[in-house]
Amino acid sequence: MTAIAMPAPDASVLARRREIVATLREIVPGEGVIDDETEMRPYETDALTAYRQMPLIVVLPETVEQVSQVLRYCHENGIKVVPRGAGTSLSGGALPLADGVLMSMMKFNQVLDIDFANRTATVQPGVTNLGVTRAVEHEGFYYAPDPSSQIACSVGGNIAENSGGVHCLKYGLTTNNVLGLEMVLITGEVIRLGGKHLDSEGYDLLALMTGSEGLLGVVTEVTLRILQKPETARALLVGFPTSEDGGRCVAEIIAAGIIPGGMEMMDKLAIDAAEAFVNAGYPLDVEALLIVELDGPEAEVNDLIDRVEAIALKNAASHIRISTSEEERMVFWAGRKAAFPAVGRISPDYLCMDGTIPRKELPKVLARMRELSDKHGLRVANVFHAGDGNLHPLILYDANLPGELEAAEAFGADILRLCVEVGGVLTGEHGVGIEKRDLMPEMFSEDDLKQQQRVKCAFDEKHLLNPGKVFPVLHRCAELGRMHVHKGKLPFPDIPRF
Amino acid sequence: MQETLRPRTVEEVRSAIEWAVASETPLALRGHGSKEAYGRPVRATHALELSGLSGIIDYEPAELVLTLRTGTPIAEVEALVAQNGQELSFEPMDLGPLLGLTEGAGSIGGVIAANLSGPRRIKAGAARDHILGCEAVSGRAEIFRAGGKVVKNVTGYDLPRALCGSFGTLAVATEVTLKVNPKPESSATFCLRGLGEAQGIAALCEAMGSSAEVSGAAHLPDGLEIGEGALTLLRLEGFPTSIDYRFDILLKRLGHLGTPERLGSDATAQVWRRIRDCQPLASGEAPVWKISVPPASGAAYVAALRNRFDVKVIHDWSGGLIWLRCEDGRHHADEIRAALAAVGGGHATLVRASAAERRDVPVFQPQPAALAALSARLKHQFDPVGILNPGRMVADVPAKVEKA
Fold first, then answer.
1. Domain B186-276 = CATH 3.30.70.2190
2. pLDDT tens for each residue of A215-274
3. Buried-most residue among B154, B190, B260, B339 (CB within 10 A)?
4. What is the average pLDDT score of chain B?
5. φ and ψ at residue B81, rounded to 5 degrees
6. Closest alpha carbon to B166 in B399, B401, B383, B384
7. A210 close to B158: Cβ distance less than 8 angstroms
8. Which residue of B has its CA nearest to A487?
């Protein structure tokens, strides 16, 4: 276990474990409550496997009423709750607490309603991201956000993390594709936000829920916007002698008014690892490789392919291939999609980072990252969602060598500080969780973070839902609510008044 | 008589709010005053006017990102991005015609506060889908920043998006970062005449479910102050070859309903601007509602109301947005809201009405108790003393606060 500390367990809750198990069994009968150590083991970590913690108890409710009763009971008795979807979080968002009930939502796995006329799919939160597309593709529709874990990750988790994917520049993130939610507050109250119609009727609580990392409520139903699949998709594979050339090409494509469906860049180490793994035919004599995918009506795609090719040639592209078949397009993507496991083959362990930067800063950030790599004595491979500026540096290390995990984490923190320094952010799509929690002050002032925590207070005043995630310092809501009022003379004599 | 404070910097905004908190003086927030007749009337002795916080802070067309002060005139913003071949793709509507005010007035802050969008909302999203970050001053007189200047960002709660549509009741946004998009090279409109309401909206929904990438889908029933007979309109935007191709897709799907006319770029710009600004219903002073329903239910919803009283409507957003004018001059709030349940939910906002009606009739859709209570708690966390636009969205109950 490394340095990130979780809240100290509440001894009185630990002491009441037997009683809590009994009460939860009354609410969720059958096998929905797990208290056996061996059976709880699979829940001790998510996809940030460096961190592990056994939960107090695991509960798997099957109905909204059960979710409501469990939360109400926990609220009344001061018991913490960690909601969990498929457990694919890369930031430790679903890491259990020793004194907390882990609530798995994976029994909520039904597609409830498909409405092609209104272009919506209503599903339970345990349905996988890809499961939504599977449910609607027979009519030529799909669900646009496609995080790389889409086979496994749940829609509920997508809401919690505001998941993206390679297509978000053109089609948006989860937040742009969610129309409605049913959710349960920690008090057990069930509320509905939005629906099949557009825009909210009051405050945009959907916006707050999306990306809230399980700290505000437990989602029990989701209505998503589905889209007609683009008629055609074709891709260009472009190699550049330097990352500067690649970065300039990306900027010029956008400046030409072209918004590609996907635009991905890889650096030398990532290219080499991917090519060795899947033999996608990537050029090995380039410093940067760009995949540009254009989708839409056939006539448009063919036209844009020519335009992008011309821009690439103008920017010193040394290698260009254009897909002529669906098969070839998939081969172009095969290397990129296998980049993480490919890097896993050349190193015993790797840490996947997730910052976002303004696109134009890419060459500078890559250069600085090379310096940091030397400083920390660890290699780094880069895959980059070039369209939206989301960078995934993969830091290579060996957990069996003493001190290497700590060195990798320090390297990762330096990279994220660099992202913030150039005008970017700590996390583009993986979430803050515990992983980036203690870096939040790099990006936000104390007042910024306090105002965010006040949102938490409106939803969960006792800090019972997923505490210890996102915020480095937990302030009590009473303390956050206090106001420091300066009485006396008007403090703004200079403001023009009329 | 209301006294107006005109801060020029975020620090002056903060200091004005600090004073308002200390003296428990409610403030009516104003950009350029173009939306004062939208929402519940605010009772405040002082106005806080943000037109002095104006100007572009950072605009890099190649990054598709624009950072600016919220008092910047919307007309200035649209002209600037247009010069660079870009646009605000949520197509913010201009409430001027409907509210009987000058066209083209208003600030970007007002657009954000009211979450205004236009016909392209069905494809590109609303204002809230294009905000990336903000600087704001809370009702606690604290300056905070949230979000960022990049599209992909999940660092902390999405406060910038939550401020959209909050009508200045949570915080005073002083700076926002918006996503901009390339302006399409050309546009065209596929226009069918003479369809009934149900048939017209079914055609819109079918087109939206095709691969034609429609960016505007409206049905204008017969009897509006726009052209002769009913019009069913589908807008296509993009590269010229692509538009021709997609026009053919629509022809194949909808050709059996009649021979379509094709409007070119200029006529397209004109007609969609009129729809965007609700101009066909702008004349007179009768109450006008903005109603959001599941798109495919638009016709059934209006049919149910037509049985009860005389209305004129525009269907936009593929049927999901209904602009409705009550021809008898009465607001009919209860009937309009009661009819929502039968079509699977939605909400109705009383956009145009007298100040007395906007005070007495809930302008925004009333919420179920648990949701209303949560919204009130959120308001309280941002503005504990209740000084920011009190009563603009709902009749506020001032809360007791612990002051240190």
1. yes
2. 999 999 999 999 999 999 999 999 999 988 999 999 899 888 899 999 999 999 999 999
3. B154
4. 95
5. -70, -35
6. B383
7. yes
8. B22
DSSP class of residue A53 equals -
CATH for A347-435? 3.30.70.2740
pTM of the predicted model as reported, rounded to 2 decimal places = 0.96
Rg for chain A, CA atoms, rounded: 24
Pairing of strands A288-296, A262-267: antiparallel
Touching A: B residues 251-290, CB under 8 Å: none
Which chain B residue lies closest to A483 (C-alpha atoms)?
A: B403
Q: Which fold has domain A232-340?
A: Alpha-Beta Plaits (3.30.70)
> Which CATH fold topology does B279-360 show?
Alpha-Beta Plaits (3.30.70)
Question: In this structure, what token pair is assigned to residue B404?
Answer: 């240190």
Closest of B57, B35, B21 to residue B137, by C-alpha: B21
Q: Which residues on chain A are in Cβ contact (under 8 Å) with B370?
A: 185, 189-191
Tell me which residue in A192, A423, A455 faces B149 most closely, judged by beta carbons: A423
Instruction: Work out the end-to-end distance of chain A between its first and last CA atoms, rounded to an integer number of angstroms.
Output: 62
Which of the four pLDDT bands, split at 50, 70 and 90, describes residue A495? low
Over residues B192-241, the pLDDT tens digits come to 999 999 999 999 999 999 999 999 999 999 988 777 799 999 999 999 98
**β B46-49/B3-5 pair status:** parallel
Instruction: Please name the residues in contact with A363: beta carbons below 8 A apart, sequence gap of 6 or more.
Output: A242, A243, A244, A247
What residue has token string 């996390």? A427
Chosen for mutation from A196, A250, A302, A437 (greatest number of chain B CBs closer than 10 Å) is A196
Q: What is the DSSP string of B110-147?
A: HHHHTT---TTHHHH--GGGTEEEEEEEETTS-EEEEE
Evaluated on CA atoms A114, A119, A124, A130, the torsion sign reads positive
Q: Could you report the per-residue pLDDT of B338-363, keeping only the tens digit for each? A: 999 999 999 999 999 999 999 999 99
By Cβ distance, the residue of B202, B245, B404 closest to A297 is B245
Which residues in chain B are contacts of A257 at CB distance < 8 A? 85, 182-185
> Helix, strand, or coil here: A57?
strand
What CATH number does domain A111-228 carry, 3.30.465.10, 3.40.1030.10, 3.40.190.10, 1.10.246.80?
Answer: 3.30.465.10
| Nearest-10 Cα torsion for B244, B248, B253, B254 | 80
Does A161 sit within 8 Å of B154, measured CB to CB? yes
Quickly count: other Cβ atoms within 10 Å of residue A36's Cβ.
8
ipTM reported for the complex, 2 dp: 0.96
The pLDDT assigned to A487 comes to 59
Q: How many residues does chain B have?
A: 404
Distances, alpha carbon A452 to alpha carbons A174, A356, B152, B294, B380, in Å: 20, 20, 19, 32, 13
The number of CA neighbours under 13 Å toward the Cβ of B129 is 31
CA nearest to B19 within chain A: A490
Give contacts of B296 with chain A, Cβ < 8 Å: 115, 117-118
Torsion of CA B90, B95, B98, B104, to 10 degrees: -100
Is B165 within 8 Å of chain A by CB? yes
Domains A11-104 and A347-435 share a fold: no
- Interatomic CA distance for residues A302 and A321, integer angstroms: 14
Cα pseudo-dihedral B271, B277, B280, B282, rounded to 10: -160
| Residues in chain B within 8 Å Cβ distance of A298 | 245
CA distance B363 to B355: 11
Residue A452 CB neighbours (<10 A): 21
Q: Are strands B181-182 and B86-87 parallel, antiparallel or unpaired?
A: antiparallel
